[in-house]
Amino acid sequence: MTPLFIYLFKAAIINAMMIGFYHYAIRPGRNFRLMRWILLASVILPLILPLIPQPVIHQGEAEIPVYVITLPEFQGATTITSEAKTSFIPDIRLLIYYSVALLMLLATMVSVLSVARRLRLSKVKITLYGKIYIDDAAVSPFSFFKWVFFPDKSLEHPGADLLLRHEFSHVKRHHSIDRLISATFRAFFWFSPFAHFNHKLLSEVHEYQADADAIAAYGDKAGYNQLMVSYAGIAGNNPITNPFSAHLKKRIIMLNHLKPGKLSLTAIFTGIVLIASVAVFSSMVQPQKANSTDMVSDDEFLSTELSESVLLPEVTVFPVGDGSAAISDDTTLVPAQYPGGDEARILFFKNNIRYPLEARNNNIQGTVEYKFTVEADGKVTSVEIVSGIGSGCDEEVLRVVALMPAWKPASKGGRPVRSTMVLPVKFTLSNNDSESDQVFAVVENSPRFPGGDDARAAHFSKVITYPESARKDKVEGTVYVTFIVEKDGSISNTKILRGVRKDIDEVALRAVSSMPLWEPGTQRGKPVRVQFNMPLKFSLSEVKSEAKKESSSEVKTSTMIDGREVFMVVEKSPGFPGGDDARIAYLQKALIYPESARKDKVEGMVYVTFIVEIDGSISNAKILRGIRKDIDEVALEAVNSMPLWEPGTQRGKPVPVQFNMPLKFDLSEIKKEASPSERMFPED
Length: 684
Hints:
five-stranded mixed sheet
């Protein structure tokens, strides 16, 4: 269902609710002015209420929407299908909707032009109530805006004064404005019977008001009743005008009950609560985002198994925890963390995200920043694009983010709390066989500040001065800075990913730009350009203590598992003996596609996490996200059987390191292999 139809559907429901509220709570009171305003509100409010932003819950400084964006299920990172064909046939539903709406709007316009034509052909006559137009073609007096039309014979009627009083009441109360608004609403909501009913009810109330005004002036209820009977059976001239002969039966009944009745406060309160509830609920209903670019042709399919010499699009996912520095020792808030750390998150994105076909064809490149909330239970909600580049890239990021597993939630004072994060994903079209200008997000050896984290913390302690204006205004917060560590160790492309305010952001940028040469990152033994992100936290609570400020810049690069410290980020990562090629060759031999899964045509990606111990052995192998039991067991057995790795090191000493590995089970590759033992191809 398109966003337009969802909006129309929500507005029609609210309109129906308000018609019910009018009928049961307002109409019995016979207060014509109130009845008129409620019916007008039944036309205007349904157009506005669905556009009101979703309700939010405030958690500290963050606004947490109470609804969750739903996205279609992802069908697997390696599914190859034929290219989606663009249809030039318009959506038949939209065609029908717009056709009928246009016809009804044209009918309204024709009615207005008809009045203008009558105005031009009519003769003017002055009465005690004002100027009228003599229209001999009319069968009943009628009015439109300030113009009152009378057939000449109606002026000779014994009740002519009552007729004039009635029609000039329409003019005085500006009823024609109501009729045009209601007619326009009815044209766009032609599919809803309540829109037509609303138009009719409003017309009736207009007549009730004009009748009441005429009777109040003359006090001759019986004579007015006789006057209306004399116009029985005469149809109105024009549906957009206010003809005297309209709704005579109901008006005669209402004429005998002009005295206002009692309004039920309970009914009014209940109605308002119900309408407000429906409006709030409707604001939570959002159109489902479907990714139209999931289908790609075979020759354009992006896979990590393709040769590195092929021209491939790059999708770079930035880490957020590498090298963080803080300007405070406020450690009460521990940020949320993806299971397995940034490395696992980046691998997850790289194995699931696709470069949209539309963006590739149009050479669209850039960075998409997305915002999401990690709830206290770790669930990811309220995903939205902060800064996008379009052409399907924004939708692709939303699709993949919706597939993320639960995070380890942020904690404050030891208790899990909601937190909001903003992260970037960079889409670039580049040639993989030329790495001279390629910017890496993850490399074998990460760039390093000269002297390590302690030296970096000391550098920021010296160069950063809390802006006096921010100190006076008591402004605090975290500035996220992104930059590139070049192959010579210099810093370039320094930018603010998310700032606090201009003066603090400028201080952070100057501090980062003033850093000395880093030890560059390396890939396959060669220095490469590496994207680096650094959060700098500005807090007034601990400005007094420089020593505390330095100690607070420690980055959480480890976690406690089974009562011992296990590292997630180390200076030198653990490595499979012989490198990645040897690891892939081992897994191709060790992993056998389960026969049951093969028969059931089950495919997908298994994410395994394990610890490389200080002696290189493998322990604590677990499934981060599996497919089904038989495939998961095969993956675990292969990982547990791996030979000794080269252990990771931190400050020159071997340490236990948590490692995550995606394993892709793909039946399409079986046809290429002579032996059924080589059925699984690991993702790098």
